[in-house]
Amino acid sequence: MTRSIEEENMEVAEVDGVVSESEEDVVSQPSAGGVREEDLVPGWLALLVLLLLLAATALGGYVLRGVLMKDETVTRTGLAVTEMESASEANPDDADSHLNLGYAYQQDGQFDQAIAEYDKVLGLDPENLAALYNKGAVQLALGQTKTAEATFWEVLKIAPDHALAAKSLGDLYIQQKHYKSALVAVDPVLEIRTDLADLQYISGVANEALGNKEKAIERYKAAARFDLAEAQDALSRLGVKE
């Protein structure tokens, strides 16, 4: 599900008692909480994420892709780790300095150091969504699936409509064939933000796998409206015209 990012169209882990290895057990929905768009990522990365998200609204919908993970949609940005280290040392009690350094480490592949910096941010600001989400992304990159799963659920407890965390969980559960859990992760977000094409598609895949064909078609159609190729292919495979 990975494609390149265009500026005008962004193609945008185990908690005790939350996720079961069995599909008979479904995760519980995170508690309510507020979210600010600018909390999704560090402010200085606005051009990488925030502005792309905002620009997508002009197209009438979002197609979310892996933004903070190392995949083919993201290249190293040449972040000055040394400069960020100096800023963090000069401002040890400044959460943003640690956040910026953590992201610099993350982009440079220094994952253990990145997590350490994100933990410093969370020590100063326990509900910092950028540090929490980025930490989950790094844990996932390290193959720490269960830990990342727990971290993403922590994000959703704070911000129930956090699209990136929901997508990360949805993708993870689809890969694991935990389809009910995928629905629990993405459907509450879709109730708030129906314009998230990737989440519509994830819900479609999960519903189809669970035998809910009509609901799957509904979700695929919603995603196809934003020209999501995977959704269009799914509809064609099911013999459904958009």
Helices and strands in order, then pairings?
Blueprint: H1 50-57, H2 81-90, H3 95-107, H4 111-124, H5 129-141, H6 145-158, H7 163-176, H8 179-192, H9 197-209, H10 213-224, H11 229-237
Helix pairs in contact: 2-3, 3-4, 3-5, 4-5, 5-6, 6-7, 7-8, 7-9, 8-9, 9-10, 10-11
Please give a structural write-up.
By secondary structure, the protein is mainly α. It has 11 helices and no strands. It has helices at residues 50-57, 81-90, 95-107, 111-124, 129-141, 145-158, 163-176, 179-192, 197-209, 213-224, 229-237. The chain starts with 49 loop residues before the first helix and ends in a 5-residue tail after the last helix.
